[in-house]
Amino acid sequence: MDRRLVERLATTTDHLVGFPTVEHNPQALHGCVEWTRAHVYKHKPRLHVKSFLSNNKPSILFSAGDGPPRVLFFGHLDVVEAVHQSAFKTTQEDSLRLKGRGTADMKGPIAAMLDVMEQDTITGMGLLLTTDEEIGGQDGIGHVLHSIDWRPEVVVLPDGGANMHLVTEQKGMLRVRLDADGRAAHGSRPWLGDNAIERVYKAYQKLMRAYPIPQGEEDWRVSITLSELHGGLAPNSVPCKAAATLDIRYPQAAVANVDALLRDLQRRVQPLGVTATVLNRAPAYKLDEAAASVRQLQAVAQCVRQRPLDLVREAGASDAHYFADDHVPVLMFQPECAEWHGANEWVNLESLAVFRTMCAAFAKSYLSRATARPARRVMP
Question: In what order do the strands lie in the sheet containing 154-156?
């Protein structure tokens, strides 16, 4: 193991984690992006840099060479909220595990991709960093793809495939709000009121009977999670209004028409006086396993780690689907890591170094063997 590489990755990850890059902290989002700009400029000042901004969510693109990147490393610097500010400082319980908010998802892998851009620069490589993946990606990758007139040939996105697995499919996502109106009354006389919270919860239970909770990652069915529940104005009154948020994940094969799924949800809750409104949606993603880039990545994995990456399907969603309409293969794999979004999120530094080696080797292999062709142009 290259100790200098491991120390370099740990130091960069620590700096990135130190920025509390949550949705409602624009100062941290902009500060983290500017830190990466300064870090890259210090080590590789000749890289091209382009900035993007949408709804105060910054993105930054580094590229090597005069043309658009053919191999695009891609990641997001934003993280989910943490209960304690101490989460935004890394800790190292042993020589290998680095803990902290975002070490796995995905500031550790970003540190590795930054290192590749700075230490193993090859014409045709690029690195795009956004700051809104955790809230849908519309102002990050969505905005960037609408702002540029080219597409990469392949994308490397370490936002799935933990422990060196290659993601072949991710579920689509729907975020739905349930709303109910009731009738207020004093809490001591519930028979005079109509409890809106009970209406919403009965609707949720009805949906759960129709769509039971999957029993594991391989139980490839629709899942519905009650993630938020709001209602009531006072502790001694029957609530007259209530709202709930549902996080729904669906497999592409099981839901041929997502609008039909929405209509079914609405049909089931309407008799209870509950409305269902879509807040956000993201389509499912499926990788073409026969793509040449997949074969090249597996050849690199065999060389670097003496075995190919195992193939997996994952219930989680990512920004990969933004590339689906343009038929750009997205290679999703991660180093050994776990407990994303949790208090004990961690990444294995030795595995992170292997991930970095694989990224560099893949870019070199792809750019040396693939036939160079003009960037595919699209209408911005």
Answer: 48-54, 57-63, 125-130, 71-76, 154-156, 330-331
Q: In the chain, which residue ranges form alpha helices assigned H by DSSP?
A: 3-17, 26-43, 108-119, 141-147, 196-210, 258-269, 292-305, 349-369
Residue 228 contacts residue 279 (beta carbons within 8 Å):
no
315-337 pLDDT, tens digit per residue, is 988 999 999 889 999 999 999 99
Contact between residue 102 and residue 87 where contact means Cβ atoms under 8 Å apart: no
Is the distance from CB of 154 to CB of 366 less than 8 angstroms?
A: yes
Q: Contact, 108 vs 337, CB < 8 A? A: yes
Domain 172-282 belongs to what topology? Alpha-Beta Plaits (3.30.70)
The single-letter DSSP state of residue 83 is S
Residue 258 phi, psi (nearest 5):
-65, -30
Can you read off the two tokens belonging to residue 317? 């969603």
Q: Do domains 3-170+285-377 and 172-282 have the same CATH topology?
A: no
**pLDDT per position as a tens digit, 193-234:** 999 999 999 999 999 999 999 999 889 999 999 999 999 999
How far apart, in whole angstroms, are the C-alpha atoms of residue 209 and residue 195? 22
- For 231-245, b/e burial (b = at least 16 CB within 10 A) is bbeeeebbbbbbbbb
Residue 151 β-bridge partners: 376
Phi, psi of 286 (to 5 degrees): -135, 130
| 79 touches 345 (CB < 8 A) | no
- Measured CA to CA, the distance from residue 88 to residue 340 in angstroms comes to 14
What are the extents of the domains in the chain?
Answer: 3-170+285-377, 172-282
From 3.30.750.24, 3.40.50.10800, 3.30.250.10, 3.40.630.10, which CATH number describes the 3-170+285-377 domain? Answer: 3.40.630.10
Nearest to 48 by CA among 72, 65, 33: 65
Count of Cβ atoms closer than 10 Å to residue 153 Cβ: 22
DSSP β-bridge partners for residue 250: 172
